[in-house]
Amino acid sequence: MTSSALVQALQQAVGTAHVLTDGDLTAYEQDWRRRARGRALAVVRPADAEQVAAVVRACAQHGGTIVPQGGNTGLAVGSVPDETGTQVVLSLRRMDKVRAIDAANLTLTVEAGAILQNLQAAAADAGFLFPLSLAAEGSCTIGGNLATNAGGTQVVRYGNARELCLGLEVVTPQGDIWHGLTGLRKDNTGYDLRDLFIGSEGTLGIITAATMKLYPQPAAKLTAWAAVPSMEAAVELLGLAHGQLGAGLTGFEVMGQFALSLVDKHYPQLRVPLWRESLWCVLLENSDSESEAHARDRFEALLEGALAAGCVTDAVVAENLTQAKGLWHIRESIPLAQAEEGLNIKHDISLPVSRIPAFVAETDALLAREVPGVRLVDFGHLGDGNLHYNVQAPEGGDAQAFLRDEEDRINALVFDAVARHNGSISAEHGIGSLKAAKLPHYKSAVALQLMRSIKQALDPQGLMNPGRVLI
Q1: Which of 59, 91, 123 is the last residue of a domain?
Q2: Which residues form the FAD-binding PCMH-type domain (predicted)?
Q3: What is the pTM of this model?
Q4: For 233, which of 126, 129, 228, 370 could close a Cys bridge (C-beta 3.0–4.6 Å)?
Q5: For residue 146, how many C-alpha atoms fall within 13 Å in the half-sphere facing its CB?
Q6: Beta strand pairing status for 87-91 and 40-44?
Q7: CB 250 within 8 A of CB 157
């Protein structure tokens, strides 16, 4: 590869002003958690799918590899370049338009660089709900959400990003454009290419636009915060909520006492409720299509039954939208409080809901025995079996040394426990480069061979995000 020839070809493709080769490129070269810092040959900022295709063809001709990037908020180091200085970062941030809203079909077509929060606002302005919601929604992009099959807080009702997508526009590793922006809910004409690209982390092609599902706005949305005595009680409460709220149950989050103590410590103004008296707290959301009175009656009946059953010891129901946002803000502040506390090891795992209590009990005890003083920050989306099972360094110790000396061992202990309970080592963050070497230990050989066959068939030159997912 002649780097100067490639840079010139990139400049011809998107214009000199949108090919960055010098200056401060930290925002593109460093991941959100500051776990990795690479060096790009160039950062390219195309304006449309045709320019993306031209960039891919230039890289194919000159031997450059491509790292697609949206908001660069990922947690698995999957969207920053390596240290060789030979990779092209393809930033989709300029491609942020809402192309169309089809009210009758309940769909919205949007470019991949659109910020998730802006997409939510566009849907709301049109009188609809776009339900994908996660802590990084003010900076993450819909293309990145689809590339990692993001989940968030409303999966229990609406599903992951995959379930919300009806069609894609994708640039292939050959520089062709697949125009698949259908709004069809039924299309049985062969392999489902849409689902192939969703969750592939940019290793098979570059998502440039998507057609997403919209939903009617609920007539009322209520939030409750409940103290529960154990993880078993939280699972019992989830079952009661499914039975009594049905499709109205849109969110069900669980938070451990230590996780909430960090929020209380670093953000005391948030006034975390009930955490001192209970090992676990649960945040529930009920969306109702009838009225607020109907929603409140059903919610209060659920909590009264749960109190009588003993799976809830105390609860508060938000009286207004401001209080509800405050409760959700507490939940969303856990990762920030953990960062304030210091360096930590993150695990984004999924398990059958029925196995979560046993997993937590077994793995908490295992880590306490193997790593004295370790602190466990357990929280996550219990409604869909996704836990953020994070490990904080012992208090007062050298956190840098803890990560250096213990991270691999702790990862192995946690991931082995996940495997014993029939779970997955990645629920919604993806594999990236952070977990790529670990994937062969926890994915079947048959599955990996199928994945490699697909990668080879679609990207024989290995242009697309090399070293991510499959190594």
Answers
A1: 91
A2: 36-217
A3: 0.91
A4: 228
A5: 33
A6: parallel
A7: yes
